[in-house]
Amino acid sequence: MNGALAPDHIARLATVLDDAAIGGTAIERLPDLDGASPADAYAVQAALVERRLARGERLTGLKMGLTSEAKMTQMGVDAPIWGRLTDAMHIPDGGSVSLAGRIHPRVEPELAFRIGRDASPGDAFADVVDAVAPAVELIDSRYAGFRFTLPDVIADNTSASGYAVGAWRPVPGDLAGLAVTLEIDGAAVHTGSAAAILGDPRRAFDEAVRLADHSGVRLRAGWVLLAGAATPAEPLPAGAGVRAVVETLGSVSFKAQP
């Protein structure tokens, strides 16, 4: 596809993705996004999230995706991608979330950063991020079979569906060295290291500021930034309990209700 998508075309694609999420119905890939530029895909993402905001949701932060070298190689890119979080996606630590309407939910353990003041390109991590916490992201692509291209997943708000954040802690000196474990019903299903997040999770902040700025978006004081997955994603069955444990930071958990 050559050239930028027209505004009405962007709106139609956003409507298709939004309807799929509301109806909990998987859709085939969007051929209109074949060959689309990242800018076009992010424009669809913005229109998609704007529909949610028009229904009363509010932005609560950003999330990073494709933050591991393996995932970037798989998708043929050399930089991560980002999406938007809203209050309707928040899952209370120790609470529950309904999987009704989710298509093929999966969970990933992450680190969350609390944004202490509005961020601008060039700002240092230590000057903006005032706390860190263990986190779990609930992802749920709207595409059948979890198959998509890079423009597809960007447009679909990087498969964002929900997130839970544990207790906020002071940022430790060594973030990259922290061990991370994902548990389902008390059994460890994945173990890894925070170093899987761009080699050092602090780099996720730098990338978030840089990439979001291309779309005119800034990290705001009080927002959450999900730095990216520290292990592979794991399918989440209805009725299961999920917990992420991050060395020195503690844990975060929730229950998946049918």
TrEMBL record:
Recorded hits in SUPFAM superfamilies, A to Z, give:
FAH
Would you say which domain of life the source belongs to? Bacteria
**Designated name of the protein:** 2-keto-4-pentenoate hydratase
Its source organism is: Prauserella oleivorans
Q: What is the lineage of its organism?
A: Bacteria, Bacillati, Actinomycetota, Actinomycetes, Pseudonocardiales
